[in-house]
Every structure is written in C-alpha cells, then in structure tokens.
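#onboarding

Welcome to the new folks! Below is a worked example of what a typical request in this channel looks like: someone posts a single protein sequence, and someone else replies with the predicted structure as tokens. Don't worry about understanding the tokens yet, we'll cover that in week two.

Example request:
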Amino acid sequence: MSPRDKILIDHPTYPHAISTFTEARARLLPVAVASSGWDTAQLQAAGRIASLAYLIPDFHNPTGLCMPPSVRQSLRLTCPTVIDETMTDLALDGASPEPFAIHMPTAISIGSVSKSIWGGLRIGWIRATPSLLERLQQTRYATDLGTPVVEQLATAILLNEDQTQRPGTLQQLRSQRDALRQALTEHLPDLHAPQPAGGMTLWATFPQPISSRLAAIAPDYGVSIAAGPRFGIGGAFERNIRLPYTLPPSQLTQAIRRLAQAEQAVTRGATGAHSPAPVA
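Example response:
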C-alpha cells in the first residue's frame, strides 16, 4: 500500500483499522453499513476504484451485524480484499457464518483467538493464497522481532482441537447481552439498540447527537464509553455509542444506571473534560 491509495472500508468500522490506514496516508472510501446491512451495489462501485478493501462481514464491529449469504455470494470486488474474521466464532443466534473466502477464494482472511478463546492470548492468524503468504513471511522479518513461541504453540493446539467453539462462553455472552438490553430498556428507554446476532457489542443510537459530550462526562459518573465518531470519519456517528456486554450482568446494569445519570447531566447542559476512552 502506498500513500494516497484508496481503501474501501465499512462505515462504521474498527477504529484501529481507521488509524492504521490513516497513518499510512491512505484515502478512505467509506461505504455505509446501515441497520439493514451492506449495500452490494455501493460496495462494488467503490471496489472498482479502490486499491484495497477491508470488511468485517462476521458480526461486524461495532454493529454486530452479519453479512447474509446472498450478499457474500453476489459481491465481486476487483481489488484485494481483507476480511476480518475476529468475531466469526461468536455466533449467539444461530450458526457461525460460512467463510467469506468460499465465494472469493482470493480474499485475505485474518483473525485472532483473543475473542474466541481468551483475551490474554493475543495471537492472530492469516488465511490467504500460498504465494501471498510467502510474501508476507519475507516481509515480516523486517517488521517485527517474532511472536512468542509458547503462545503460538498453544494457539496451534487449540485451533487443531477446534477449541474456538465454546458453548459455555456463548451462553454467557448471550445472557450478558440480554442483561444489557434489559438495563437499557429500564434506564435509557430512548436509546435504540438492536439485538446483534453475535459478537460482543451493541451499537446504540441516541435521539440527539450527544455521543462525544457524553463520553467526556461519563467518567465523572464512574463509567467510560467509546463515542460514535471513533468508529467513523468526518465526525459521523455523533448519535451512536458502542456498548460491550463482556461484563457480568450486575456490573452491566450498574454501568447503564450510571450512564443514564451522565446522559441526564448532558441534557441539563453539563460538560466534561475527559479524553476519549481507549478502544480495543
């Protein structure tokens, strides 16, 4: 990738992807992921002028949406396409989606076991054509000093034993998701938060554009949130916040109660001075 290359991205999308492409001085081509999902025509139009596409079709971060099989089958991008499968094993309603590369064999699939197995195991993987993997292997020598061997061996064993399928973890996430949505119904009834089919987060929408102001004052009430604009470009998503449901139900309920207090303070005109919360 060279400076000024055009990169097709979902909009919203993973904040660190935005940072990575921006630091490389790429030009971002955002294509909206609406509540109804992906627009195939817009994706293909943008793909014709892009040098690279980065998409999250499997329990999209931050919306939790899953790209339907019909879209996967019909989407034909002419540019190299990176598919982020980090959340693919976190199907809460139904089966895990079929790999995107079934329909696009040249896709570069990437993922991590930090979500499906354990957050402390920060090991990622790449699935691509042999020729591309050989190029990546040669490039890696100049860009890092090597991933810890023990962690790589542990990951290889866990993957070979299909340990990314963890019914207990999925049931726990399911109950935490339900607890979070119930807390929102009770304490923030005006906040629209569709139920995602998988992943770890809700993508919630306020009636008013208060996301950044809320993120600046929320720590005063004992809670930190990732404001919507962190997930887009050009100041988009001021009505949105991403709400993870990775904590126990009691803590999620307490957090939403505190968030409601912060929202009331913003409505009264209060301001905050806290920096945006880190996003993982």
